[in-house]
Amino acid sequence: MNNFTFKNATKIIFGKDTENQVGAEADRYGNRALLIYGGGSIKKYGLYDRVLKSLRDAGLDIIEFGGVQPNPRLSLAKKGIDLCRKENVDIIVAVGGGSVIDTAKTIAAGVYYEGDVWDFFVGKAELKKKIPVGVVLTIPAAGSESSISAVITNEDGWYKKGFDSELSRPEFAILNPEITFTLPPYQSACGATDMMAHIMERYFTNVKDLELTDRMCEAVLKTIINNTPAVLKEPDNYAARADIMWAGSIAHNNFLSTGRVGDWASHRIEHEISAIYDIAHGAGLAVIIPAWMKYVYKNDINRFAQFAVRVWGEEQDFYNPEKTALAGIERLTEFSRKIGMPVTLKEANIPYGRFEEMAGKCVRYGPVGNFVKLREEDILKILEIAK
Questions:
Q1: I need a labelling partner for 156 at 20 to 30 A (CA). Which of 187, 271, 328, 335 fits?
Q2: Are residues 217 and 359 in the same domain?
Q3: What is the rounded average pLDDT for all residues in the chain?
Q4: What's the pLDDT at 40?
Q5: The pLDDT of residue 39
Q6: For residue 263, is it within any domain?
Q7: What band does 296 get if pLDDT is binned at 50, 70 and 90?
Q8: Same domain, 93 and 240
Q9: Could you tell me if 134 and 215 lie in one domain?
Q10: Residue at which a domain ends, from 156, 178, 200
Q11: Which domain holds residue 142?
């Protein structure tokens, strides 16, 4: 186990009706709030009205900023930065999933920065100061509600990149599982796949002697695997929704990263796919992660065999651990199929014509991945496996 420092400053407020506390929480940070959200779903199901009432009851002035789309765009975030400066916003309240939260984080980072906010995403600047961010989570998936990460797509060249900073963690996050009852099955399945990917990116590491965090990763994975079919079958199953919602936050708040070095190559590859083709991030990961596994598993066959046994319940073949390892990869693929995810690029309606472009963009700033360092030719082979 490596040395580590762990700190998570996000206050989590979890449970039924907790969205009614958003005003009291936001009021701690000032009087003027930018309310950011995506499309019309929060208005359709009444969440918008409840949040608005809570903010107004707390005496906040509200500036609305809607229209965030999946795979959020840098251009919209820049408009939000200008709006915050113009309106002297004290706090940003994000009501939505990862795309809304990541847009809010990008805006928050850019308000006090004199340069181009994209500088944070390409490593030209380090975040020193930001506007506070609060969250009312509507889609358990990205884990952005308590993570250090934000991901945005730059339409100039269609680059999708992330940046990490401890300052990017929201000040508070409200998680009410009841809000997720109305999620379409496909969104629920994409969310489950996304959070599983966050855990697997951490799980496959070259660091040794990690029994505790290995077991924690496995437990959260098994919880997601057990409860995803339940939420797809019974959308208003509170117990299952609660486990899924909390698992999504734990999957990406870096608690499972302690003492280990994650990989993250699969995320980098998928970002290039969804930047160009605008598919759901979880759907893209369902395709890429098994292909990545098939390409790199020989780097540590025993870890992949452990994954198969502990997570999927495969029998350990002590004479042929490679057989066990491959069985675990197949079980992951079968699970993705079961919950309605694509498992090939063809099923995801991704054509083959731009593989070289995606691979080149992925390694523009150097090789990706830590479990195995991948270069352009490696990524091309993974995309071929994923076809």
A1: 187
A2: yes
A3: 97
A4: 80
A5: 84
A6: yes
A7: very high
A8: no
A9: no
A10: 178
A11: 11-178
339: confidence class by pLDDT, cuts 50, 70, 90: very high
Q: Is the pLDDT of residue 46 over 90?
A: yes
CA distance 129 to 324: 48
pLDDT of the residue at 273: 96
CATH number at residue 265: 1.20.1090.10
- Predicted TM-score (pTM) of the model is 0.96
178, 204, 239: which is the final residue of a domain? 178
Q: Would 1 be classed as within a structural domain?
A: no
Res 196: pLDDT: 98
Count of structural domains, the chain = 2
Which two structure tokens, joined as six digits, stand for 343? 């498992």
Q: What is the per-residue pLDDT across 223-268, written as a single tens digit (0 to 9) for each?
A: 999 999 999 999 999 999 999 999 999 999 999 999 999 999 999 9
> What tens digit of pLDDT does each residue of 162-179 get?
999 999 999 999 999 999
The 3-class SS string of the chain reads CCCCCCCCCCEEEECCCHHHHHHHHHHHHCCEEEEEECCCHHHHCCHHHHHHHHHHHCCCEEEEECCCCCCCEHHHHHHHHHHHHHHCCCEEEEEECHHHHHHHHHHHHHCCCCCCCHHHHCCCCCCCCCCCEEEEECCCCCCHHHCCEEEEEECCCCEEEEEECHHHCCCEEEECHHHHHHCCHHHHHHHHHHHHHHHHHHHCCCCCCCHHHHHHHHHHHHHHHHHHHHHHHCCCCHHHHHHHHHHHHHHHCCHHHCCCCCCCHHHHHHHHHHHHHCCCHHHHHHHHHHHHHHHHHHHHHHHHHHHHHHHHCCCCCCCCHHHHHHHHHHHHHHHHHHCCCCCCCCCCCCCCCCHHHHHHHHCCCCCECCCCCECHHHHHHHHHHHC
